[in-house]
């Protein structure tokens, strides 16, 4: 119980600090959303409408930054993230709700696939250290150093422009109506293949190398030697003794990877014109759309915190020593 209370206090403080930074960071940028909106709509907005927009976004000249901060917390506790000026005053929650499933579907599935494949391959290579299987390491390491956006451009040039196997942009065929039918689902999978492969290929090497190194370290432990001396089957030694302990550091990295799913593919979504949260964040930054930027940053923060909480719980459940050390 002491372990969980300590972690809860830490995450509550982290959440407060992240939300506070989330409020002040956009306001440190040059300009404001009203000025940017007027620059895009010169002569189309009346002075009365400008004043109404300033009141709506809390940007009146007589309102201090502290008053805006207090109002931000008051609206946030009510579940109101404000309205997006760059999206025609649509509620920020609606903009995020429309974009979030695309990012989760693409990056989430690709990250999970790369983690499990990399962990399994790294386990095998670590167990068979010194064998020909280690020839995978140089290739995987090289691919992990390639920027994912650069690899994405190569994928488009080869598999879309040259071979014509996959589309180069968008999340689905624009002639289709979104729905839970096989034609639309097939189109989503078809359009998401290239960006998903890009994520898997660039992240696979890190998982393989990390798991392989941990397996080599764990295999020298006494409990693995004892398990082998007992005559246990090799598969049981690998799964129940070596891999179970070697995978623990991987869980923390996996949690961070899951947390950054929401906002970690900004450039990739721009390259493939994929309507995810990263592309919306880029558009909001250009328009200095404070509410939308704050809403997306908040989702990113919450996703990272939740992912770390899940990793802490899983780590503590798999390794009781963690609970004992934190509780001391």
UniProtKB/TrEMBL annotation:
Domain ABC transmembrane type-1 positions: 100-311
Iron-sulfur in keyword set: no
PROSITE patterns assigned to the protein according to its UniProt record, in alphabetical order: ABC_TM1 (PS50928)
GO process terms (BP): transmembrane transport
Localization per record: Cell membrane; Membrane
Membrane topology listed for this record: Multi-pass membrane protein
Residues that span the membrane, as ranges: 7-25, 102-127, 148-168, 188-209, 254-275, 295-318
Leader peptide range in chain numbering: none
Entry protein name: ABC transporter permease
Record-linked SUPFAM superfamilies: MetI-like
Example of a GO cellular component annotation carried by this entry: plasma membrane
Assigned protein family: Belongs to the binding-protein-dependent transport system permease family.
InterPro entries (alphabetical): MetI-like, MetI-like_sf
Keyword terms of this UniProt record: Membrane, Transmembrane, Transmembrane helix, Transport
Xref: Pfam families: BPD_transp_1
